[in-house]
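Typical record is below.
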Amino acid sequence: MLKFLVLQKTGKDTAILFISETIRHRQHGIHDTPTEITFESLDDFLKFLNKEKEFSSLKDNYHYIKNELPQLNQWLIENPKEIISNSTIWLDLVKVCQWFIHHFEAKKYYIRELPISVHTKFIENNAKTLRAIGTRKCNSIGNWLCTKILT
């Protein structure tokens, strides 16, 4: 048996295709059980999950990071949750990474003295994410980042 259902959500139609089969159960009787649920488009799927803004932010951050730090492309593909969970701070994370790539000088600065336009504790507060990036591309971002800040 094939059933088609259109859900109404936030004033927009979301098309979902349910494929079900009739099952006879001795305790529950005869009923339809879904065997497959299909969304007509990615937009419909995102609307159903209420993740439209999150997905848009993921795409925007992915493209921004990929353009600014192309050496992190594989890391971006493998770590979408990191992109989402840090969605509001990627501009600053990229600033830090670029500074280490272009201006790093060993033993010249303490962590809070780095001439990067981020607040003084930004690197310490985001060490986990920087560690994840740095261990993937340690030579690109700087050995100091991996050894001094991230250990």
Q: What stands out?
A: Strands lie at 2-9, 12-25, 29-39. The chain has nine helices and three strands.
